[in-house]
Design brief:
CATH architecture of the largest domain: 3-Layer(aba) Sandwich
Structural class: alpha/beta
Number of strands: 13
Number of helices: 9
Number of domains: 2
Radius of gyration: 20 Å
CATH class of the largest domain: Alpha Beta
CATH topology of the largest domain: Rossmann fold
């Protein structure tokens, strides 16, 4: 099944397909406009996730969708179909992920945060022997670094979601990247030494408990803090130490950064040298209207770069 998706992605690339995925809210607005209810192009089918008539697609694409099990009939229609997969462009690469809307618990999302994550690690990463992308999702971070030659010997794409690992395998193959695909709860399933850990974990409180979105804790900070704590410990146990690069969101309450407060002691215990930067002061502002964020002033996109020596 996954090899059919690889061929589907390659076929789209040959057709010069490109698409930039927006936030779910922006996607909803664009799709609700008059004239956008039914697909008229490949971007409508594989990017905007709009229903399409069979005759819109070349037979080869339709057959690959069926073989990859990413094709379904639209309920209540006898002539419309829908792709259950999206293909988006990041850093010049085409990547597969879940179709809109990403409402299922195991949905795998790629969007604006992924683009900011890739840009941040691209600026900060240096040559490493073994790179682990924790909570890799689509695998975009590890794949981009592998393409740039950062993981000299090995790149590991690790996630707790089997659905995410499926997409990571497809995306690595499409990109021509050799990567270890590992089922892992943070770093528990990753064996051996590591000298670069990257992560773009979920950082919101999600009432549907979707894996790609729910960060747990008081304001969504718990998973990110856990990755920092366990990542620093793992790097200190490595013979050369190493670097942690983490992109996440931080809730600001009465002017205080909840995530930074949660990791402060871990950074001290590891004797880490680090920089901590706000990349965007205000993301997902629509979340502030929810009861769980009643005392949150804003959610910032932040980037942590921490280096530790072997312990």
């Amino acid at each position: 099944m996954w090899d059919a998706l690889v061929e589907l992605g390659r076929a789209l690339s040959r057709l010069a397909y490109r698409f930039t995925t927006v936030t779910p809210r922006a996607h909803q607005i664009v799709n609700s406009r008059p004239g956008n209810r039914e697909a008229r192009s490949l971007r409508d089918v594989f990017g905007w996730s709009r229903p399409f008539a069979r005759e819109l697609l070349p037979q080869r694409l339709f057959d690959l969708m069926a073989a990859g099990e990413v094709l379904e009939r639209v309920a209540g229609s006898d002539h419309l179909w829908r792709a259950t997969i999206r293909f988006s462009t990041v850093d010049g690469l085409l990547l597969a992920h879940s179709a809109y809307p990403t409402t299922s618990e195991d949905a795998v999302f790629l969007g604006p945060d992924s683009t900011r994550f890739v840009a941040a690690i691209g600026r900060a990463a240096t040559i490493a022997t073994r790179v682990v992308d924790v909570g890799s999702g689509t695998g975009v971070g590890g794949i981009v670094l592998a393409r740039r030659g950062v993981g000299v010997h090995n790149v590991v794409l690790a996630d707790i979601s089997e659905r995410a690992l499926h997409f990571a395998r497809v995306n690595a193959e499409m990109a021509g990247v050799k990567a270890d695909i590992v089922h892992s709860d943070v770093l528990n399933g990753v064996e051996g030494e590591v000298d670069l850990i990257i992560a773009n974990p979920p950082y919101l409180l999600d009432d549907q408990r979707r894996l790609y979105r729910d960060g747990s804790g008081d304001y969504g900070e718990a998973l990110s803090a856990r990755i920092v704590r366990e990542g620093l410990r793992r790097l200190r146990s490595s013979s050369r130490g190493g670097t942690l690069l983490l992109y996440t969101g931080a809730a600001m309450v009465a002017g205080h950064d909840v995530f930074l407060a949660a990791i402060d002691e871990d950074l001290k215990q590891a004797n880490a040298r680090y920089t901590y930067t706000e990349l965007d002061p205000d993301v997902f502002s629509e979340e502030l209207s929810k009861p769980a964020y009643a005392d949150v002033e804003r959610i910032a996109a932040v980037f942590l770069q921490a280096q530790v020596a072997p312990g």
